[in-house]
Amino acid sequence: MDMRVKTAEPSLEERRLRSLDPARAPQGRGFLAWMRFAIYPYRLTFWLVATVMTMRHTLAAAIPLFFSYFIGLVAAGGMGFADAIMLATPYLVIFALFLIGVAVLYPQLIMVDLATRGLGMYALDRMIAMDTAWHEDKASGAKGQKINKGRESFKILLDSFFWALLAQVGLFVSLGASIAVLDVPPLFYLLYLLFGLSYSAIAIATLPALRRRFDRFYAAVEELFGNVYDFLSSVTTIKIFTLEKPILRRARNVELAGHRTARRLFRYQGIRWVLLNFTAGSWIVAIFIVALYLATTGAMPLEAFTLVLMFTVSAWMRFEWLAYELNSMVEAYAGFRRLTDVLAGARDASEAPDAQTGDAFTPRRGEISLGDISFAYRASSDPVVQGLTLQIPAGQKVGLVGPSGAGKSTLLKLLLALYKPASGCLAVDGRTVTELDIHAYRRAFAVIPQEPAIFNMSLRDNIRFARPEATDAEVEAAARAAHAHEFITAYPQGYDTIAGERGVMLSGGQRQRLAIARAVLRDAPIVILDEATSALDSETERLVQDSLDNLFAGRTVIAIAHRLSTLARFERIVVMEKGRIVEDGPHDALIEKAGLYARLWGLQAGTVD
Question: Which distant-in-sequence residues (6+ apart) come within 8 Å of 459 by Cβ?
């Protein structure tokens, strides 16, 4: 996968897979509105296919009319084979067109597939755009399941529309034509209409309860997927601590809970199925008895009686099929609705990449100002950062230290606009962050985290994430600066080596060197390090530190490190405790002050018990 930004004209396949316009997204959670939104880019193909499919279903349902007409002709006698063939020719031509019309299956499948993929891309885009708090509150497996099941459900709903619902439309259109052409009493149209209405009434009346059961069923499925993803992503830890049996026991309990939910769903489905089939069967018997009475009393000719019998059998089969399809459609509706509920909430997500949320300003100097900042992760919890004021001139190197839970990482998240402060003002280069477009603002930062995110793609593309338009030469130069070039070229595929899921092929130090290479390639005015060299051995750390010194030149640097020796030569060290700044100054001055920093330094140096 090439991460470079493409400037060439998009291919035919790329033009076919059209993006959904977020500005057209429904305001609420209306099911049909979201269906229309998803198929809008392919609406012309949709209506063309729907028209042809309706005609085909109507012709298919009209075959009994054709047979009944010729049964009447043969029964009347007096017509030779040649005359009968001549009379049947127009009908045979129509039947041939009906068979040829199956070619519409190809554009239907293409349209459904493209619309499904477009919806999946839109859902992924909107989910990524959701704020950090939303993502930290949801299991990754459950989020992935919502997208996958939503896509699958959308496809089922479209297929059911073309092959089940339109088939019923064709049945009634054909029945109406039969009544007009043959001597079929209009009573039968009324009977079929009452049949359809009563059947639909029961189906619709039982939908809310069925949907609620499907909602609970899919909630259980999402919990299961969340657990499975969690277990599989931590399989090394499970093996080290011999947790196989406890983990499988937990998975079994989740499966059993899901089975109990499924059992209640299947019980209700079974009762609903019996009720719908009993209703259909009762009407079929009633229609047959009425038709038999009229035929035996001479009130209805033979061809009309034959037509009614054929339509009765056809209706039975179609409605039994519809009963099955309705169960699938309700299940699909529940899966699709769980996705659209998320999409409705994400409609105006402030971090959407296609939505500018403020002035498109990217800081260049790196001057940072925090004024009386307070923040809590939840409204009911205690503040993690409270009343914090900090001024960092452009180009200054600042170390953040303090005991665990002091608020250091939270402060960096606020600075990166991953969260908004509850109160106070955060400004960079004199501009208040809340007034800026979040994507333009974040381009001012290069971040080297403690646990870098490594994707299952080539090492080259993993580095190129920092600047997708970068050339291969620029990527290699960044890797050399981070001392990553050596281990990359040691692999047989070099920069094309696939890193594996979450970078499983790499050591902790190699992952961090890739993160440092990203920061070099980013070439941003502000560099943030969160334990950036914690996984490096002493020799590699020395090499990387030289690279970082070059990276830091002329840039504002904010670094968190529990290994205080890495911050000792910083111009300034800010000491935090319980969400507040308790000390601020250069290393030597803080040692002389004999406060919290001096104590932390002494603990690491072994001079303080």
Answer: 488, 491, 494, 495, 496, 497, 499, 514
CA distance 306 to 304: 5
Task: Kindly report the pTM of this predicted structure.
Answer: 0.63
**493-502 confidence digits (pLDDT tens):** 888 888 877 6
Q: Which residues of 517-533 are buried (b: 16+ CB within 10 A; e: fewer)?
A: bbbbbbebbbbbbbbbb
423-428 vs 431-432, strand pairing mode: antiparallel
Tell me the CATH number of domain 25-345, given options 3.10.560.10, 3.40.50.300, 3.30.1330.10, 1.20.1560.10: 1.20.1560.10
Q: What SS3 class is residue 555?
A: coil
- Identify the CATH assignment for 394-421+433-605 out of 3.40.50.300, 3.30.930.10, 3.40.50.12780, 3.40.50.720: 3.40.50.300
Q: What is the CA radius of gyration of the chain?
A: 34
Domain positions in the chain are 25-345, 394-421+433-605
The residue to which tokens 């920061």 are assigned: 519
C-alpha distances (whole Å) from 75 to each of 62, 67, 230, 405, 441 are 20, 12, 72, 94, 85
What number is the average pLDDT over the span 142-152?
75
Could you identify the residue written with the tokens 């719908």?
276
d(CA 245, CA 189): 64
**What is the per-residue pLDDT across 92-102, written as a single tens digit (0 to 9) for each?**
777 777 777 67
Backbone angles phi, psi at 324, to 5 degrees: -65, -45
pLDDT at 5 over 50: no
pLDDT at 558 over 80: yes
The confidence band for 159, taking pLDDT boundaries of 50, 70 and 90, is confident
